Amino acid sequence: MTSQVSSPAEQADGAVVGEQRKPAGVKDVQRLDRVIIRFAGDSGDGMQLTGDRFTSETASFGNDLSTLPNFPAEIRAPAGTLPGVSSFQLHFADHDILTPGDAPNVLVAMNPAALKANIGDVPRGAEIIVNTDEFTKRALQKVGYSASPLDDGSLDGYSLHPVPLTTLTVEALKEFGLTRKEAERSKNMFALGLLSWMYHRPTEGTEKFLKSKFAKKPEIAAANIAAYRAGWNFGETTEDFAVSYEVAPAATAFPTGTYRNISGNLALSYGLVAASRQADLPLFLGSYPITPASDILHELSRHKNFGVRTFQAEDEIAGIGAALGAAFGGSLAVTTTSGPGVALKSETIGLAVSMELPLLVLDIQRGGPSTGLPTKTEQADLLQAMFGRNGEAPVPIVAPCTPADCFDAAIEAARIALTYRTPVMLLSDGYLANGSEPWRIPDIDELPDLTVQFAQGPNHTLDDGSEVFWPYKRDPQTLARPWAIPGTPGLEHRIGGIEKQDGTGNISYDPANHDFMVRTRQAKIDGIDVPDLEVDDPHGARTLVLGWGSTFGPITAAVRRLRASGESVAQAHLRHLNPFPRNLGAVLGRYDRVVIPEMNLGQLATLVRAKYLVDAHSYNQVNGMPFKAEQLATALKEAIDG
Length: 642
What we know:
20 helices, 642 residues, disordered N terminus, 25 strands, single chain, seven-stranded mixed β-sheet, six-stranded mixed β-sheet, alpha/beta
């Protein structure tokens, strides 16, 4: 969640141990205030499904949580290799948390590749559960182990739990008549059952999920449930796990309301549907599948009952072309993509700027350039969003800061597009898109009224007294032009990409008119009403940390750590990147040092330095992963001391 309430537990990466109790007849139970678990295995081992199920049960239990899925770009990388490792990290707690955690307290490694790829992140003393059945000589050699790390002493500093997961799963499923290969596929459910026992997770939801997922194959559903229960029972009976753990619900972390776990892409989808209902407009999505944005297309295709139409086009250009056509026809129009797709859509975005029609362009950023890192995260499309079109083609830019915030950001982007008749860029990224956290489901009356007034008739009187419709006659407050639905009698007008004459919309090559139209379109964007930037500065700091997008969680966690250690540091986070909040210059001027952490090489810092002449310092990372809180805290401490 994104509350500013601090907790002593947020100052450390590891779980904090509280009191210990031992009810009669059961094993020791240790109370923790938070835990970080990472499931890791081959990309065919079902680690994402395992993590999703553990997350769902954790959400239903009432913990605050944050997740970090991490998987290969290949559909099926070579089995047992380092490039084929898939992992899912979950941080859950009895208090407000902000990130998926810096380092896992528990690593579940399904094979040698998973162990080798992740052991560098695991602190000494942490628990490691390994599937010993996969530690064969061939599997070890495939990832460069000359000897088994289970035997050579290299894991002596950890609490190691060797478990023959595959053998135990096959044994548990003997009665189902499955082949060994079929039975082995359920080993992830055995591991999930074991971890569910260790951390007292509910089980009913997972069993119900398995019955639903394999409804057409009830024998497979029964086998997976049996493996899941076998894992639970193994934890209960084996002597290797002498302690189980409790993490209480986060009773005070959330405002009163109804909550559900939600990912960024799902929140964006729901936000788009809500915006279309609040605007009383049909929602049209013109899209071409691209990682990590495709989930939005998949989700919106399920909501025809809300007047949603989804169109999977043959390419990126056709997708945005169809969306712009839908905008011309009176729909709330959306296109979704990632960085490479934005490059292809740039000419049509410029056309939307010229036609001055509302259009939402959702860029779920990933590592680049070119195809880059399709399943990894990055924030490197900011300058492309700002300037990536020919001519002077200004576009508003909005950026969500958490997975749940994607819902509100989608509605805000729609508000701007509909009010000011402009395309709007929304910059999410792979970390937000695939990560999840609890989300309070809002009441309908909390949502803004986005109702649109279409042009109904003539809006201009000529010198001879005749009344006509001018498609580029502007609202004096917003500078938005009227939105005329095609086919409305008397509202016929020219449309296209060639420069228009002010007011009439006729084709114009007049130099003075072009200068006026360019400046007017820029003034419309500059005049967009956005809230002032809020600054969190309880102690009158001299150093300000300025962020945008998905860096919010790591920055806030780092700031909490510094304040807990006695340091004074201020924090502000930008949602609106074009136009900037009107008070941004004044805010920057109040501080001796401004530090801007970004998952790029300093794009926001470049804009801030150019516009406000502030000596902003960049702290940058482009390794495809989000910042770690400890890493940021160290960098910010150096900035404060410097």
